[in-house]
Amino acid sequence: MRTPDPARRTTRPAPAPPPGPRRRLRTAAALTTALGSLAVSALAAAPAEGRAPGPAGEYGVAVAVRWATEAGIAFGPCPAAEELPAPVECGTVQVPLDYAAPDGRRISLTVSRVRAGGAPGDRQGALVFNPGGPGGSSMYFPLAAGLAAWKRLAAAYDFVGYAPRGVGRSAPISCQEPARTVEAPTPAVVRPSEAEKRERIERARAYARGCAERTGPALRHYTSLNNARDLEVLRAALGEPELTYLGASYGTYFGALYATLFPSRVRRMVFDSAVDPDPERIWYVNNLNQSLAFEQRWLDFKIWAARHDDTYRLGVSPGAVQASYEKAAARLAEEPAGGTVGPGELQAAMLSTGYHDRYWPRRAGALAEYLAGDPAKLIEQAAPDPSTAKEAENSTAVYTAVECNDAPWPEDWATWDRDNSRLAGAAPFETWSNAWLNLPCAYWPAPRQRPLEVRTGPGELPPVLILASERDAATPYEGAKELQRRLAGSVLVTERDAGNHGVSGGQNDCVDTYLEDYLLRGVTPVRRATCAPHPEPDPVSLDRRTVPGPEVPAGRTPAV
């Protein structure tokens, strides 16, 4: 999913010291959001040198699968750093850094598991989850077994999470000093000057150099194709003859790569909020499309806020709400709230409204209170947290490495400037912040791959389930339809007139019924089905605010 620019980014919290109550609260927030967000800011575009997947990688997978089958995973109590209580267990699986040289360096991926809670005879295997990113970890996923929305699935399946290569304790990578990710306050420029563009170019060059210098020759091996191969090794290490998988956001993309590479190993797969897998759109074009979609979802939020002007007093029309936002940004530029919340932090906080409407009441309330003279809620929701710096930096590094390695990107600034200047005229809210995030890919020092053509023919793959909302901004709806066209026999379930990124896991009973029918009984609609939208959130009165639930920091929506 997309994040603020890589030189300074706030994201979901890093692990806190035990007992870590704040982290567990935020993890619970992420889980209840929908178990799948994150978004991806995916995209691709221009001709460039690169490598296509070949027989060497296939041989490496076969070798690694043989090791993993023999070794399995020695599950035991989780390390304190994971803050995962019993009955959750943790272990590691080894994978080749380079599948073309499987006898060379190996790296360890951390894995978590809670066993199925039902009768032994009812167990259907392991359900592996990936939340997206790139850069997201699902080590917390076994905790979902304790949530009501996942109770029936948790009775039938072991819930398995893991940290993909580069993430967390799985051979982590880095591109800059972690403290850089929480530097604040920052600007939010809608119409950058030529001087500002030159500064951003230099920062992108420096960031790309930092990735190469801090990660070294291993940098080229952090790719979506290798994530798909690692998933096959994980399947073998778990002792599962076939894979049952739930991928959200970016997790749908390398899940689709897995389905293309290993169709005979698929048992059941769910793709929640799908990335458009068209090789011509991985990743540059997808990012442009995402910025356009965010403008529409930002409008949805402003329409909702205006409809509840009696609560928030932000304005009775979307234009008036926009004016309130701009007034706050101008005031923050003059005097940052708490010394750390400037226009950039405000924009990052409000960006979360495009991912999930559960943020609408909180963000509207914080904005309203700030304009009324009380900055406390805005500071609480938007200020960067230094304790998250290490995890934030690591997550951004993985995001950048994977997307830059995966595909060709335009290497001339003129293309970026033309495309984003044109787009910002129609979609100013996210366009330039998204461009700055991805600009290091224009100056990337590692070789790029050519994206694999995601496609399976009739009968090659069991039926797979695609879930999507029509107004999803992070992974626009056209991506779900494109994925269905490419995976023969796949089924698409659409939540109409809704826009949450990640639609499974408790927010829509209709969607969850299709999910459970599929995962528990293998039943799907014939080809397509629709669900009515979940209810929009109720406004929270500033005079009678209920006790707030767990808050997720601004920036990239948690990959849950």
Automatic annotation (TrEMBL):
Keywords on record: Hydrolase, Signal
Record flagged with keyword Signal: yes
GO MF, one example: hydrolase activity
InterPro entries: AB_hydrolase_fold (IPR029058), Pept_S33_TAP-like_C (IPR013595), Serine_prot/Carboxylest_S33 (IPR051601)
Transmembrane segments: none
Biased composition (Basic and acidic residues): 535-546
Domain named Peptidase S33 tripeptidyl aminopeptidase-like C-terminal: residues: 432-531
Pfam families in UniProt: Abhydrolase_4
Keyword Lipid metabolism appears in the UniProt entry: no
Signal sequence coordinates: 1-44
Entry's family note: Belongs to the peptidase S33 family.
PANTHER family: 2-SUCCINYL-6-HYDROXY-2,4-CYCLOHEXADIENE-1-CARBOXYLATE SYNTHASE, TRIPEPTIDYL AMINOPEPTIDASE
Protein name from the UniProt record: Alpha/beta hydrolase
